[in-house]
Amino acid sequence: MLQTFSTMAWNEPFSDTDKRQAIENLENGRILFFPQLAFSLSTDEQVFLSPHYADPHAKNISYHPQHHKLWGMRHLTDQQHIQLKTMLDRYSRYAYQLVQNLLPHYAPQLTVARTSFRPVQITGRKTSYRKDDKRLHVDAFPSAPNQGKRILRVFYNVNPHGEDRVWRVGEPFEKVAHTFLPRINKPIPGTAALLRLLKITKSYRTRYDHYMLQIHDHMKADERYQQQADQQEIRFPAGSAWIVQTDDVSHAAMQGQYLLEQTFYLPVHAMQDETRSPLRILEKITGQCLV
Ligand SMILES: O=C(O)CCC(=O)C(=O)O
Ligand SMILES: [Fe+2]
Asked: Superkingdom, according to UniProt (predicted)?
């Protein structure tokens, strides 16, 4: 499930063998794991290792690297606001460097999306089942349809007390899709246009987005599936990073506090083998063009 790298710096070059295996593993639903990557915080930044600055109504503190915009936080002085942005901006650039060096084939095609910081302990959090990431799911974003693009994420456990981030990882996407697609209704004609008109979605919710959201919701809602689906626990120690395509790797975050995360989008045609994408797998099963 994991391919482990002994990389110690975010800008370290990789061998051709590493690069070849990385793309192969990623496209086959495995996780690229970097147990020795340090992300150091300045004394000013260490203050942010507290749930105090997280808005209880938001799931995460988020940053948009392109627009230098921060949201989901509270109680920050003007100076701290800049410091936290600087910290997340640095993480975003490091994550991009890592991806650029290891997956050079992907890099020119990537869109840099949101950066997030998650200072709240997962176990104590109360949410609706849809928002509950302690349940196995594949990622699909209700307000940000990605229209078939891959979701590639770089995570870093920045916990200062040596606490692991604990995940469960479930069965391959194709199996998930075969289990849940028969339970899902076709999209209602006109809905996507209406959602866009009302600005509920930031872009057009394609048939692909409809199916992915429904799979996400049905997985989380199914208690029996949560308990009985093939799954394994993976512990990501403090001071480790991992890269995973969360649209096809079924995952649940069970425990942990203080996570950094950078999201990228990748068009399927940039893949080495696009038949492995959730888009092409769903199109194969439904016999329809979905975007
Ligand atoms: O917070 C985490 O460890 C992962 C949560 C999750 O499901 C996600 O970011 O997609
Ligand atoms: Fe997720």
From this structure: Bacteria
